[in-house]
Design brief:
Structural class: alpha/beta
Largest sheet: 4 strands, parallel
Oligomer: single chain
Strand order of the largest sheet: 3-4-5-6
Radius of gyration: 20 Å
Distance between the termini: 62 Å
């Protein structure tokens, strides 16, 4: 399998070819988003970006919902431009009327869209590692606090 990736920084990873964003969206059969939401990345998957993608592309978003123009995305799903998608986040996921969200409605009536409540990275290992990280930070803070108290 050819693996391509796009990043604003130069990188090197075995078996991964770095390409620019245009090549990424034009050449990908499966496009997986893993980036921060910033003013520059908001709506990065725009109507224009969907137009440049291969027909039948699969989209995975484990980042933030606002990276995707959701109206354009819904059109792409309905037309078959996007054949399937898995979203671990949608824009407005904290809205009290989430049941009215167009993507929630689409996912309830179509088999080619799966939406999870931002738990895609929640594994036994990631939960354990997060707890260990927090415990180590707390232990270090307590050590420094005790050391500072003894120094007084």
């Amino acid at each position: 399998m050819r693996v391509i990736a796009c990043d604003i920084k130069e990188f090197s990873a075995p078996g991964v070819e770095q390409v620019d964003f245009d090549a990424l969206i034009r050449e990908s059969d499966v496009l997986s988003l893993h980036l921060h939401l910033t003013p520059e990345t908001a709506g990065i998957l725009s109507r224009e970006a969907f137009a440049r993608m291969k027909r039948g592309v699969v989209i995975i978003n484990t980042s933030r919902g606002a990276l995707i123009d959701e109206a354009a995305f819904l059109d792409a799903l309905e037309s078959g431009k996007v054949s399937a998608a898995g979203l671990d986040m949608i824009h407005g996921e904290w809205d009290e009327h989430l049941e009215r969200h167009p993507l929630i409605h689409y996912a309830a009536t179509h088999r080619n869209l799966i939406i999870t409540p931002h738990i895609g990275g929640s594994t036994v290992e990631s939960n354990r590692d997060a707890r260990l990280f927090t415990a180590r930070k707390l232990a270090e803070y307590l050590r420094r606090t005790a050391k500072d108290a003894r120094a007084r």
